[in-house]
Amino acid sequence: MRLLKSKKVQSILIFLLFTLFAIYSNLPILQRSLYTVGTDLPFHINRIVGLAEQLTLGNFSPNINTAFLDGFGYPVDLFYGNITILPASILVALGLNVITTLRIFSIFVSFLTLYTMYFASKRITKNNVASIISALLYLFSNYRLRDYFYRGGVGS
Fold it and tell me: What global pTM score does this model have?
């Protein structure tokens, strides 16, 4: 029992719990051969692929995303920052296909969602259990699941 009171052990347990739930929350896309195409998913896939192309060319801050308009490009990055899709674009630039990248990226985003909500709740409640529960409630909230998986709000 004394072992569970250690901050280091608690941190490791929370990390493992959040990793498990991040994977569990993404089982629908991990088990299917294709992503559900929502209204925004093709747009965000174009953003990811376009940024990956620019990264492979050595352009780390592109103003025009050439994956749009048959290669002519569009300044989509004026409206959407690239920081949200940078991890996925790096994986695509390294050679992973887009579907595998989206699956890895979804788990990563879910993990970050859990930690962000956990730390926000922890700051308010000062309670580990309440913070973990609020993080899990937000991860599995209907709005978040629909926005991310049905609408395809990957880069939002």
Answer: 0.83
User: Could you report the per-residue pLDDT of 139-155, keeping only the tens digit for each?
Assistant: 999 888 888 777 777 76
Compute the distance between CA of residue 69 and CA of residue 49 in angstroms, rounded to an integer: 13
For 14, phi and psi rounded to 5 degrees?
-65, -40
Bin 71: left if φ > 0, else alpha if -120 < ψ < 50, else beta: left
